[in-house]
Amino acid sequence: MRFARRRAEFNRRFVNPVVRPLAGHLPLWSAVDHVGRRSGRRYRTPVTAFPTTDGVAILLPYGVDTDWVRNLQAAGTGTVVIGGRSLQVRDPRVVSTDEAAAVTRRPWQRLLRTLPVKSALLLTRSS
């Protein structure tokens, strides 16, 4: 777990600033817009997201305790930029990657089931 935390910190400091402007416009590079639960500041975090039948699934390679996951859970809503489109989302819930794959569109189902990531965040598209 220590390696995963160091990798997450490296990505946050060095990779995310480069990827952030492209996130949401390239395949597999999406972005989640959220509000800090203590600061009230707006943040954009690059993520790997996949369309589902009623929203999106976001992989959680660094676990469920990241700030952006906790911010979405506290607010209950946010925005995901995927495929060049902004989707208002709600009801964040952490599930197993297999459960996320079950509601993911093809061809992503097979990919999700083969990745070494244990959990995902499911978000429902707001009406």
Automatic annotation (TrEMBL):
Pfam families for the chain: F420H2_quin_red
InterPro entries for this protein: F420H2_quin_Rdtase, Split_barrel_FMN-bd
GO MF term set: oxidoreductase activity
UniProt name for this protein: Deazaflavin-dependent nitroreductase family protein
Organism in which the protein naturally occurs: Mycolicibacterium neoaurum
